[in-house]
Design goal:
This protein is an alpha/beta fold. It is built from twelve helices and nine strands.
């Protein structure tokens, strides 16, 4: 079956995105060699975003998910995923997140689907790629590439992945929405998805190809593309590891029966990282490494000082 037979649901949440949303929507609809359907939910914009979205309301391959409240970007994306999974007239094989500010290169999705199809024997599959960080006018600032080992341990202390580069299998998407408790978690939907896939021993596929022009400007909800000082500031300003601990508890509660003993042990230590023995074990676990020497020092300093 050709790539046109591989149905992809693209999930796009908007908030005060009138300036760039139309560019992004057009770039998504112009994807090559895949059959896609775009789901868009606005999370209570105060600008003209809805006027932009309404231009696409009658498109056959676009669904505008009407909303009445602001639920935050994570829950907005999860709501979109739930709607797409229950669209009974279309059985999507793959799912992808989309930020409102970016522009996708025409081969973004087909590049992902081709690589995911090579691992058809694995039910849990997640693809992610590099991206091109740009300014508001799409002038290139840097080419962002990832040097991850794709281990569960590393995923529990790193926050550098960007959800808009991800494409993932239907079975993994269905597995994610196992309980409404997910809407109360504080960390991102993309972070949780990545960690869940690894906890379930799913396949992770990294592609050096950059299919996304990732616009960096002050209004971005995402942290992708920020410099080291901004990351350190974010790290101290937010309770990242408390959120990670809550995710670990959630995963153990709902997925423990599908996990290996080794992954259960890792998750238990993170879920209860405040216990002295777990803290020591995490501190000396060389697999739990951040993306740079500086961030690694920050992580361990926060661990032993109780700032987590």
């Amino acid at each position: 079956m050709g790539m046109n037979g591989k149905k992809v649901a693209v999930l796009m949440s908007t908030y005060n995105g009138a300036r760039f949303a139309e560019n992004q929507i057009e770039s998504i609809l112009n994807q090559s060699l895949v059959s896609l359907h775009l789901f868009i939910r606005d999370d209570g914009s105060k600008d003209e975003t809805m006027a932009v979205l309404n231009k696409y309301r009658n498109y056959e391959n676009v669904t505008i998910v009407d909303a009445t409240e602001n639920v935050g970007y994570k829950n907005s994306f999860l709501t979109l995923l739930d709607v797409a999974l229950h669209k009974t007239d279309k059985q999507f094989k793959y799912f992808s997140f989309a930020d409102q500010d970016d522009v996708w290169r025409p081969n973004k999705l087909v590049s992902a689907v081709e690589k995911l199809e090579h691992h058809f024997d694995s039910k849990y599959r997640l693809y992610y790629s590099g991206m091109t960080v740009t300014d508001s006018n799409l002038n290139t600032l840097l080419e962002k590439r990832y040097c991850l080992k794709n281990t569960l341990e590393e995923s529990l202390v790193r926050f550098s992945l960007t959800g808009t580069t991800m494409v993932f299998s239907r079975v993994l998407a269905e597995k994610l929405l196992v309980s409404d408790e997910i809407y109360d978690l504080k960390d991102g939907h993309d972070t949780l998805l990545f960690r869940l896939n690894l906890a379930l021993c799913g396949v992770v596929i990294y592609d050096d190809y950059s299919g996304v022009l990732f616009r960096r400007h002050d209004a971005n909800a995402s942290t992708g593309g920020k410099n080291i000082m901004a990351k350190i500031k974010d790290d101290f300003a937010k309770k990242y590891y408390k959120a990670t601990s809550d995710q670990a508890k959630f995963i153990l509660k709902h997925y423990e029966d599908d996990m290996t003993v080794a992954n259960i042990n890792i998750m238990n230590k993170v879920a209860n990282y405040g216990r002295p023995l777990n803290m020591i074990s995490i501190f000396f676990n060389q697999k739990m490494k951040r993306e740079s020497f500086i961030m690694n020092v920050v992580f361990r300093a926060k661990l032993i000082s109780g700032f987590l």
